[in-house]
């Protein structure tokens, strides 16, 4: 665990990076006036940031005649990585990276067979990250000011139902690969965080996020803060019962929403009704071609989903509902019956006050939410645990406490 001096130094680094992020290029003298650090401490911090590649000298412009050589100004290096997010989904790995200016460098995804060993999944993630940073070739990745890696995983983290051995092993593999702390959380809750920071629900203080994928889950933003819940179990919407006599669910219950609205459940029902589709893209193609079986099935599934969302809205009171995951690719064929069922069963006083939106960040949402978890700068995380994998709490940069993340480019 880092000692007090190393934590203080990291706080000073974040303060300087925050000033350059906010004000743009600054001279050493200007940085000194803004940060309040002693000249010796500031120059020492700047020397390390320059050596790591996080900060570079700004392009010099010709000085006015008679005024001599202008003072060197420093700026953030747009090519230096600061944070990486990795979403280890059930059957794919998604990665995203941001630079020190909090601009999204890019995102990438690659599917893999279910049950792929953690060693191979970590190697896949590392290869995808190398592609984002341009760090092709052998050796360790050089990512400048990289301070931590955010990771999204399936299922609970740090509470009942958690897989501590598996998660500890994953964290160990990532620390060995990248040499930095690892912060983990449920990948669906991280997707909710990302959609609320710069996705479909940007700027909204009360959001309900539902993800329809190989599993069904979600996340909540309540009063402008991401809600984790006791033991990290918030957002398990897929295990709300919709049919007590329904199929057995992996959670041990029967007739959960996941048994009718997950990818496997929908594809199985479609094939049982005479349709042909091996995956979601083929189902989407059938919908676009007007397949009556596909349209009828999605209307039924959407009605079930809408009923669950109505109950959740009556209990929680969100102003925006965001629906994401691969099944959302079926578009209005699914969203329209969801909206109809929601409108019919929600309290009349809120019927016209809840907005249903489709997610906008796609497969990168979980990885982007993991980056937000690492940076811990959005007001959405103001009441959220900031502990790393060994329990340390990194000092917040006081200069940016209220400044939301604002990536310049979406992936």
Structure characteristics:
single chain; alpha/beta; Arc Repressor Mutant, subunit A; Nucleotidyltransferase, domain 5; 3 domains; 5-stranded mixed beta sheet; 12 helices; 13 strands; 17% strand; disordered C terminus
What is the CATH homologous superfamily assignment of the largest domain?
ATPase, nucleotide binding domain
Order of helices and strands: HEHHEEEEEHEHEHEEEHHHHEHEH
**Mean pLDDT level:** 84
CATH architectural label of the largest domain: 2-Layer Sandwich
CATH class of the largest domain: Alpha Beta
Distance between the termini: 34 Å
User: What is the SS-derived class?
Assistant: alpha/beta
CATH topology of the largest domain: Nucleotidyltransferase, domain 5
Description of the structure:
A hairpin with a 3-residue loop joins strand 9 and strand 10. The radius of gyration is 23 Å and the shape is elongated. The chain has 3 domains: 4-76, Winged helix-like DNA-binding domain superfamily/Winged helix DNA-binding domain (Arc Repressor Mutant, subunit A), CATH 1.10.10; 81-190 and 364-400, 2-Layer Sandwich (Nucleotidyltransferase, domain 5), CATH 3.30.420.40; 204-359, 2-Layer Sandwich (Nucleotidyltransferase, domain 5), CATH 3.30.420. Residues 61-66, 135-142 and 388-411 have low confidence and may be disordered. Helix 1 (4-23) packs across helix 3 (39-52) and helix 6 (187-198) crosses helix 12. Helix content is 38%, strand content 17%. By secondary structure, the protein is an alpha/beta fold. The longest helix is centred in the C-terminal third of the chain and has 25 residues, at 292-316. The strands form 3 sheets. A 5-stranded mixed sheet has the order 6-5-4-7-8, sandwiched between helices. Strands 11-10-9-12-13 form a 5-stranded mixed sheet, with helices on both faces.
């Amino acid at each position: 665990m880092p000692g007090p001096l190393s934590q203080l130094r990291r706080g000073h680094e974040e303060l300087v990076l925050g000033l350059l992020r906010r004000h743009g290029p600054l001279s050493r003298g200007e940085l000194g006036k803004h940060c309040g650090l002693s000249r010796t401490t500031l120059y020492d911090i700047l020397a390390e940031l320059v050596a790591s590649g996080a900060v570079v000298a700004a392009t010099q412009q010709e000085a006015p005649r008679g005024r001599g050589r202008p003072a060197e100004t420093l700026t953030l290096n747009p090519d230096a990585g600061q944070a990486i997010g990795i979403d280890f989904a059930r059957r794919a790995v998604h990665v995203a990276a941001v630079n020190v200016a909090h601009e999204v460098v890019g995102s990438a995804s690659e599917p893999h067979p279910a049950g792929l060993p953690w060693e191979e999944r970590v190697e896949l993630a590392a290869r995808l990250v190398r592609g984002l940073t341009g760090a092709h070739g052998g050796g360790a990745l050089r990512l400048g000011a990289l301070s931590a890696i955010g990771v999204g995983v399936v299922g609970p983290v740090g509470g009942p139902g958690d897989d501590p051995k598996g998660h500890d092993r994953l964290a160990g593999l990532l620390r060995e690969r990248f040499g930095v702390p690892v912060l983990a959380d449920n990948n669906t809750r991280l997707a909710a965080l990302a959609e609320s920071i710069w996705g479909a629900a940007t700027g909204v203080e009360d959001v309900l996020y539902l993800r329809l994928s190989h599993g069904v889950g979600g996340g909540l933003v309540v009063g402008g803060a991401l809600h984790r819940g006791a033991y990290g179990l918030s957002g398990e919407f897929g295990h709300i019962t919709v049919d007590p006599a329904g199929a057995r669910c992996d959670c041990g219950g029967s007739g959960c929403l996941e048994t009718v609205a997950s990818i496997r459940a929908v594809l199985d029902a479609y094939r049982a009704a005479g349709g042909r589709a091996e995956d979601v893209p083929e189902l989407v193609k059938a919908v676009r071609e007007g397949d009556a079986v596909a349209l009828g099935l999605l209307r039924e599934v959407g009605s079930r989903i809408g009923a669950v969302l109505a109950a959740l809205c009556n209990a929680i009171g969100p102003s925006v509902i965001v629906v994401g995951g691969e099944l959302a690719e079926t578009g209005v064929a699914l969203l329209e019956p969801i909206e109809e069922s929601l409108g019919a069963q929600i309290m009349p006083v809120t019927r016209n006050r809840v907005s249903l939106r489709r997610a906008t960040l796609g497969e990168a949402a979980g990885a982007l939410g993991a980056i937000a978890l690492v940076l811990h700068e959005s007001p959405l995380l103001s009441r959220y645990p900031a502990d790393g994998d060994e329990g340390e709490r990194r000092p917040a940069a006081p200069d940016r406490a209220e400044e939301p993340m604002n990536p310049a480019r979406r992936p």
